[in-house]
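To assess whether ligand presence alters the predicted conformation, the chain was also submitted together with zinc ion. Input:
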Amino acid sequence: MFFKNISGKVDVKNRLVATVEKGRIPHAQIFLGKEGSGNLAMALAFASYIMCENKKDGDSCGQCNQCSKSHKYIHPDIHFSFPVVKYGDKKREHISSDDFLPKWRQILHSNPYMGTGEWLEHIDADDKLPNINVKECNDIMHKLNMMSYESENKILIMWLPEYLGAEGNRLLKLIEEPTDNTFIILVAENQDLILQTILSRCQLIKIPDFENLEISLYLNEHLNIPTDKALQIANLSDGNINLAINIGKNEASDYSEMLISWLRVAFKSDPVEINKWINTLSNLSKDEQKNFFEYGLHFFRQFNFRNLTKSDLVSLTQKELETATKMASIIDISKSEKIVALLNEAIDCVGRNINVKIMLFADTLAIGEVIRKK
Ligand SMILES: [Zn+2]
């Protein structure tokens, strides 16, 4: 990540660059900004800048030996830590961020502005609540106490220290008395949820929201959304570029409308209406059908996460949030999980060339039954 790829925020960039130039990088910092503020992107760009052997014009060069690794998020001296969940057959206490590094790199490449919702979806967390556990803290201490491999510096980027429980206190010594050339960057969204002991020992860097114009330019450039439309979406997104990206993607297809009409048809379970709906879906390409079911999964996972956390900080558009609110009275988490299972089955069927119409008819009736169940 380059600084220049993050729109605006000139003051923050200048301040960070100056600390490097003066050789006064704080040992522990918190990059504090709302979801979609680019706080993580800023940490990534800063880490590359610190490591770069050929810094120019206030940015990393992108070409030197260090950049060739830091820009791919595979630099052995830039360590990552982030909330994860139980995975596979391993016990949760044996799992740490390292188990998820390939997925982490993948999502950083596709959307460095992602929110918790996208991350949990990406790692198939379902309804498991994420955290940063004891093993993670021990791993961090071990990594930062080792010699560096390829640079004189070592950097830890911890995304969402809010998910550190009291275990976070294990890191205090590290934050207070770090070894030379070790820099800790905590990337946080909510100051109130960070352990006070940690907060008080870190330099706070506030990352402002994106301006609407910056967001609309990004949508135009990366999602090919026409300028007018992009600005409309930017206005809806309240400075949250991640939300804008999600709205932008949905605007292109309007899967949201399709999903609602499907649930409505399922609820009624009138065979004629079901057939009509199925014919509409069958007219889409296999890829589009798959995207639609994937969208359904995204919606229900966000829906569950919202019901679990009672927070609106999920990756849903305003319209989807309204739908989610209405649905919450009829569809509880256990019903929603059954729907998620059916959607997974549908994705599987589309991929295996099974007669989609028959499968859809059965799934629609099954979903109707789930929704109507008292
Ligand atoms: Zn470089």
